[in-house]
Write a structure and sequence with these properties.
The complex is a heterodimer of chains A (about 220) and B (about 1000). Chain A has 7 helices and 10 strands. By secondary structure, chain A is an alpha/beta fold. Chain A has a 6-stranded mixed beta sheet with strand order 6-7-8-3-9-10, sandwiched between helices. A 4-stranded antiparallel beta sheet of chain A has the order 2-1-4-5. In chain A, helix 3 crosses helix 4. Chain A is globular, with a radius of gyration of 16 Å. The model of chain A has no long low-confidence stretch (mean pLDDT about 90). Chain B folds into 4 domains: about 450 residues, no CATH class; about 150 residues, no CATH class; about 160 residues, no CATH class; about 130 residues, no CATH class. In chain B, about 45% of the residues lie in helices and about 20% in strands. Chain B contains 26 helices and 31 strands. In chain B, the strands form 4 sheets. A 9-stranded mixed beta sheet of chain B has the order 27-28-26-29-14-13-30-12-31. In chain B, helix 23 packs parallel to helix 26. Chain B is elongated, with a radius of gyration of 39 Å. Classes of the chains: A alpha/beta (about 220), B alpha+beta (about 1000). Chain B: Keywords: Membrane, Transmembrane, Transmembrane helix. Chain B: This is FtsX-like permease family protein. Chain A: One of its GO terms (molecular function) is transmembrane transporter activity.
Chain lengths: ~220, ~1000
């Protein structure tokens, strides 16, 4: 069980003005933490810092008391990221994208095949497993990215706007799957601007004006 | 609008520069082929003129004139000759000579009393001075030393008249003796100088050494009472006459000269080998004209293909941008201009640079290879530049057809359009069909490289490359899938990148084709080089081949044994006569020296073994002592009125020659027949005993018992040791050897009873079809059975059809004492430098001197050799083209690859694995492409290489190599691989940093 903590962090891109200042937040195992805010409020910036993609200008990002250094370190500590732009390799099929990620994070090829199939099935993508990413629709690509995030079975799951291109049924299905992840013991952080989706989460951190405010602590 | 296009150019300046470079290549290639052809035309002429023999660089008009008998009204030869010889750019030298005797002891070889215009300028006077007044002569240094004469000596010479005695020809005095003063002693600094023409002034005289005429002035010659005189005018072509730009005028002038001479009749003879030189130049140029376009065409095609690919990639990357332009509802010309302007400007700039680059490249190559000949101030090759530029533009527009013609909705779709759709398959099918048609045309026309047949190599390369790409990419995808299943992520991602990138198949095909063109070029160059080596080696026969004046075979062998007693560097060779149609040409060689001297064909049994088989042990010949020959025989059974004469055929053991010694009429009863034969003064070999009739009569019978031949051991008269012709039987007799003659049809050439001192049948090695009925014509002109011991790929000098026998054994089978046919001395590279003097001293007069080095030099300057340099140039350009396409493809791919790999890195792909995938993608591609490209080149070579006139339009009958050497192919593959790998590795250089930047690492 892993806890991810951001402690008094100022977050900025490439030395620019800080997008968020003095952020302190903890994602706890078994919980879904919703990060809400308007477009440009800093949701992706916060998740990037949690994923090790962005080093805080001040403050710390801790995974179980261990300060996060970079993305490789985060991957090692089991921090999984489902990025907003899906982060899929165009030259690979849906299944290959998932398998590569599973193997890259230490899974065996056989395990990768099994987990890929298990992850695609609940998202209704079994039929598209062998299609190249470019041949999938936007929604299918997003579900592929989610499937990959689930297949990795991380201790911390960071989901950045992963329901933006989904219909209501699929959105509901995804939230259930996130819940299942939390139930498995993962600390789930779900960035969304959808109030309904946020309401389904255990806690909610609202970002506005460069600050993080607990809407539901 | 122009500003917008220029902004696009600047934004994608990398792609634009690459596209411009590809257009530069296309136009440069199109300009380079004709420019090189023009340069080759000049170089072939210059090369052949430089390596021409004196006879090929001049015209000699000769006439024999006897001032004693000439009609006073007859026009003077010098006037007639001058009127004939008005070829522009020629220098003329008048000469006259007649035989004179008086200072040489031997009257068989008189002094050559010679007037030659301007001789003093070409001699070095080592004692005394040059000619000044009437009555003065110059003597050669060797002659003066031999005859103990010095400058200032007085000599007396008389005109020499030839007495044609068949047994002992000689010269005799015929005219008033002339007292002459030796003004000086000369040596000749350059005997091979063109000034001396083809008169053979310095040809060695048997038993005397180098020939040296006695030079005199015109007035001295006139004042000398002389008979028949050989007058000559040597027309020597100067630089202007042999100007490579005026050879047609020269040919016309020669034709006119021949026509004029024909009208004058046989009194005036014109000798020139100049037409051979002109024909050789023309043949070389023709071969070059056939060869150069063979690779020039695929080079332009590949350049257009690479432009097509480059623009396709660029357009795909720009599709969203072009979709936006279309979405805004701009007019069609604006949309077209915005879509194509960027490419067209880059191509046009590249094309202009290509005109210059192509010409400069050819100028550089021709300057490096052809020296100062230059490619000529001929820019006519630039006329092909607009065509190539248009082709490049057409390729660019064709590549953007989708972006130009598709509706906005299609452009807006992000989903890729299948690159392997039915249209692409149809295009490939057309190319394959063209390859098949052109290949079939080439085969049916028996290698005629004209029409579509000339395009066969280009289409076959392209077709094989496309098929290889189509076959290989699924294999790479399969490999990648297996690698992923096996958990080898680096290999899997690299392979997926290769097989799934947009246009991967076409890029692979292009790389394969460019390498194949280079491979094909190397095949041609290497096979031709080895072919020339063979022509110069096996075609000549040995490192050096000297043709000597006719002499007896025994004399030839003796002379060679005298100068090279241990068989280290020289071998005597003579032609065997030929008497039937379809009979292969045959050479008689000293088989014991075959291995040491002859250039031996590869793939044959070792020369030493063949030589041993050609000369198996046999009975020793019957030797006669002393010049007094005698034969004791008992005659009987002769019919009245049909007398028979007896003769012995003998060969000197010391090189004095051969003779058929007549012993007189065969008498009834036991008689001893005697005759003196000077050739046997130092011992002889008995070649045979002849019974012959004195007239053409039929029904000849006789019995002759030979009981003694000189002092020969009587045991040698055993019939087992003799061979008889069909008209005679031999048997043992208490008194010796019984010869029972019964020639119902007469004896047209006599009946020869020969000692069985040669194997019968005579061993022979052969190449090509076996001699008909296993027979060859023997030295006497009759068919003889031969035992075929070895089949060779080729006989040295004769080529793919011919035969070899041992010279001594072939000589022993002959009894008619005829001189050798085309006697030659073959030498290897260990022959001493003064070999000509040694041969002269041994009594041989060298009339021809050929060497494999000289032939090689001439071949290296001939059309095919010069034209094939273009193949290397084309190969290099082709590989550079491939490298350019690779760079462009990588540049277009970069953003997408960074995006893909950065995404995977975010998901946990290790840096090392990503680096491996990055690093190996294009190097693996070029490794595959290099290998498949070379194989494609070899396959194309197998299908079309045989049609290339690598050894000229009329190749010699030699087993010329059809394939390049393994080493050349391997080295080429390696070089191409190294070059492309460096380029490929360079394309992935900065990817890591970009990927890491995208992942926060």
């Amino acid at each position: 069980m892993t806890t991810l903590t951001i402690d008094g962090a100022d977050l900025a891109w490439d030395g620019d003005r800080a997008v968020l200042t003095g952020v302190t937040v903890t994602a706890r195992p078994g919980e879904i933490l919703a990060v809400t805010g308007t477009s440009g409020a800093g949701k992706t910036t916060l998740l990037s810092a949690m994923a090790g993609l962005l080093r805080p200008a001040a403050g710390k990002v801790l995974v179980e008391d261990e300060a996060l250094t970079d993305r490789d370190h985060a991957v090692k500590l089991g921090v999984v990221l489902i990025p907003q732009d899906n982060g899929l390799a165009a030259i690979l099929t849906a299944a290959e994208n998932i398998s590569v990620a599973v193997i890259a994070t230490g899974g065996t090829p056989a395990e990768a095949r099994r987990r890929t199939a298990e992850a695609l099935e609940p998202l209704g993508l079994s039929g598209q497993a062998n299609q190249l990413i470019e041949e999938l629709s936007g929604g299918q690509q997003q579900r592929t990215a989610i499937a990959r995030g689930l297949a990795l079975r991380g201790d911390v799951l960071l989901a950045d706007e992963i329901t933006s291109e989904l219909d209501a049924a699929n959105r509901q299905r995804v939230i259930e799957l996130l819940r299942a992840e939390a139930t498995r013991g993962a600390a789930v952080v779900f960035a969304t601007h959808d109030p309904e989706a946020a309401a389904a989460c255990d806690r909610e951190l609202h970002l506005a004006d460069g600050e993080a405010i607990w809407a539901r602590p | 609008m122009i500003g917008l296009v220029l902004a696009m150019l600047w934004t994608r300046r990398g792609q634009s520069v690459t596209l411009g470079l590809l257009a530069l290549f296309a136009v440069a290639a199109a300009v380079a082929s004709p420019a090189y052809l023009i340069a080759t035309d000049r170089a072939v002429a210059a090369g052949q003129i430089a390596t021409a023999t004196p006879a090929e660089r001049g015209v000699v008009i000769t006439a024999n004139q006897d001032d004693r008998t000439v009609d006073p009204g007859t026009p003077d030869f010098s006037n007639v000759g001058a009127a004939l010889l008005n070829l522009p750019g020629f220098g003329y030298t008048y000469a006259a000579e007649f035989p004179a005797i008086g200072i040489e002891k031997d009257n068989l070889h008189p002094s050559r009393f010679t007037f030659r215009q301007g001789v003093c300028a070409h001699l070095r006077i080592v004692a005394g001075r040059c000619l000044a007044g009437e009555g003065e002569v110059l003597l050669g240094q060797a002659t003066a030393a031999r005859l103990h004469l010095t400058a200032g000596s007085a000599i007396t010479l008389t005109y020499g008249k030839f007495v044609d005695d068949p047994r002992d020809p000689y010269y005799t005095e015929d005219g008033e003796p002339k007292r002459l003063d030796v003004a000086g002693i000369y040596e000749v600094p350059e005997p091979g100088d063109i000034f001396w023409g083809t008169h053979g002034y310095w040809t060695a005289v048997p038993n005397r050494g180098p020939g040296e005429p006695v030079f005199a002035g015109a007035t001295t010659l006139k004042a000398f009472d002389h008979g028949r005189t050989e007058m000559s005018i040597d027309g020597t072509a100067g630089p202007r006459a042999l100007d490579i730009d005026h050879l047609d005028e020269l040919r016309a002038g020669l034709a006119k000269l021949n026509a004029s001479a024909a009208q004058l009749g046989p009194t005036i003879q014109i000798d020139t080998s100049m037409p051979y030189l002109l024909d050789r130049i023309e043949a070389g140029r023709s071969a070059a004209r056939v060869l150069i376009p063979v690779l020039g065409v695929p080079l332009v095609l590949l350049a257009c293909f690479s432009i097509f690919l480059a623009v396709s990639y660029g357009s795909q990357g720009r599709q969203p941008e072009l979709a936006l332009v279309a979405l805004r509802g701009t007019r069609w010309w604006t949309r077209w201009w915005l879509a194509t302007g960027e490419s067209l400007i880059a191509i046009l700039l590249g094309a202009v640079a290509g005109c210059l680059a192509g010409q400069l490249l050819v100028d550089a190559v021709t300057a490096a290879r052809f020296g100062g000949i230059g490619s000529g101030a001929d820019w006519s090759s630039l006329r092909y530049a607009p065509i190539a530029a248009l082709a490049a533009l057409a390729a660019a527009v064709l590549a953007q057809r989708r972006q130009l013609l598709s509706p906005v909705a299609t452009l807006l779709r992000r989903n890729p359009v299948a690159a392997n759709g039915p249209r692409a398959v149809a295009v490939e099918a057309v190319i394959v069909l063209l390859a098949v048609i052109s290949g079939v045309q080439l085969a049916l026309s028996d290698g005629e490289l004209t029409g579509i047949g000339r395009l066969a190599p280009a289409f076959i390369v392209l077709a094989v490359a496309l098929l290889a790409a189509r076959a290989l990419l699924p294999l790479i995808t399969g490999y990648a899938t297996r690698a992923l299943r096996g958990g080898r992520l680096g290999a899997a991602l690299a392979a997926f990148q290769l097989s799934r990138r947009p246009g991967a198949q076409r890029l692979f095909a292009l790389l394969v084709a460019t390498v194949a063109v280079a491979g094909y070029g190397v095949c041609a160059v290497d096979a031709a080089t080895r072919g020339r080596e063979m022509q110069a080696g096996l075609g000549v026969g040995a490192d050096r081949v000297l043709t000597v004046e006719p002499l007896f075979r025994s004399q030839l062998r003796n002379a060679v044994e005298q100068i090279d007693p241990h068989g280290e560097f020289a071998m005597a060779v003579a032609r065997m006569p030929s008497s039937t149609a379809g009979e292969p040409a045959a050479l008689a060689v000293d088989a014991t020296r075959l291995a040491a001297v002859a250039t031996w064909p590869g793939g044959a049994a070792p020369a030493a073994e063949v030589g041993t088989r050609l000369r198996p042990p046999t009975a020793a010949p019957i030797l006669l002592q002393g010049e007094d020959l005698s034969l004791t025989a008992t005659g009987s059974g002769m019919l009245p009125g049909r007398p028979l004469v007896v003769a012995l055929s003998v060969t000197s053991l010391t090189g004095l020659g051969d003779a058929v010694v007549q012993l007189g009429e065969l008498h009834v009863g036991r008689w001893t027949y005697q005759q003196r034969a000077p050739v046997c003064a130092q011992g002889c070999r008995l070649n045979g005993i002849q019974l012959n009739t004195t007239a053409t009569i039929v029904g000849v019978t006789a019995k002759m018992v030979v009981s003694a031949i000189g002092t020969v051991d009587p045991a040698l008269l055993d019939p087992a040791g003799w061979l008889a012709p069909a008209v005679a039987k031999i048997a043992a007799d208490p008194d010796g050897l019984l010869i029972d003659l019964d020639a119902a049809s007469g004896l047209p050439t006599g009946a020869w009873i020969r000692p069985a001192d040669t194997p019968s049948p005579l061993p022979a090695a052969y190449a090509g079809e076996a001699p008909i009925g296993n027979t060859l014509t023997d030295m006497d002109g009759a068919l003889m059975p031969v035992e075929l011991t070895d089949r060779l790929p080729a006989v040295p000098r004769l080529g793919q059809r011919g035969a070899l026998v041992d010279l001594e054994y072939a000589d022993r089978t002959a009894a008619t004492a005829a001189v050798a046919l085309e006697p030659q001395v073959w030498l290897n590279d260990r022959a001493p430098a003064d070999i000509l003097d040694r041969l002269g001293a041994a009594g041989l007069t060298v009339t021809g001197d050929n060497s494999s080095a000289a032939v090689r030099r001439q071949l290296d300057e001939q059309g095919p050799a010069l034209a094939l340099w273009f193949y290397l140039l084309a190969g290099a350009l082709s590989v550079l083209l491939g490298a350019g396409a690779l760079v462009l493809a990588a540049a277009v791919d970069r953003a997408r690859r960074v995006e893909d790999l950065a995404a995977l890195r975010t998901q946990g792909l290790r840096r090392r694995t990503a680096a491996r995938a990055t690093l190996w993608t294009y190097p693996v591609l070029v490794a595959f492409a290099s290998l498949v490209g070379v194989l494609t080149g070899l396959a194309t070579w197998a299908m079309t290489g045989w049609a290339l006139p690598l050894a000229g339009l009329n190749p010699p009958s030699l087993p010329l190599p059809g394939w390049p050497g393994v080493r050349s192919v391997a080295v080429t593959t390696l070089l191409v691989l190294i070059l492309l790998t460096i380029v490929a590795a360079g394309t992935g250089g900065d990817l890591h940093r970009r990927i890491d930047r995208g992942t926060g690492n």
